[in-house]
Design brief:
Pfam families: Rhodanese. The protein is of the alpha/beta class. The protein is 42% helix and 15% strand. It has a five-stranded parallel beta sheet. The protein is globular. The model has no long low-confidence stretch (mean pLDDT 92).
Length: 119
């Protein structure tokens, strides 16, 4: 699981999303079935077992596959989440190992998000 220096809280994620930070990419690493039941608005879906290969795609392939620009290594914020934080932590570790040093795990996951958002 990711260390606290690799995690982002609900309030920080909510504030970052509200600011509409350019360069922010929120990635849902859950299964398609989980995503179909709800997700954080504006997030893209990259299953945890494909995160590493997806981040290795060139920019054109990434854009074509996910419909958003590929984050650069120095992207301001790259946030991964799952249901409760474990898979998000794994994805964050993979991204950081590839050089995405500003990758974070939303450890509360969709479980916390949906509770706080009243979903």
């Amino acid at each position: 699981m990711a260390n606290s220096d690799k995690e982002i809280s609900y309030s920080n994620l909510k504030a970052t999303l509200a600011r509409g930070n350019e360069g922010l990419l929120v990635v849902d690493v859950r299964t398609k079935e989980e995503v179909d039941r709800g997700r954080i608005p504006g997030s893209i879906h990259i299953p945890v077992d494909t995160v590493e290969n997806s981040l290795k795609l060139d920019a054109v392939e990434f854009q074509a596959k996910y419909g958003v620009p590929k984050p650069s290594l120095d992207t301001p914020e790259l946030v991964f989440y799952c249901q409760t934080g474990k898979r998000g932590g794994l994805a964050t570790d993979k991204a950081q190992a590839l050089g995405f040093h500003k990758a974070f795990n939303y450890a509360g996951g969709y479980k916390e998000w949906s509770e706080k958002e009243g979903k």
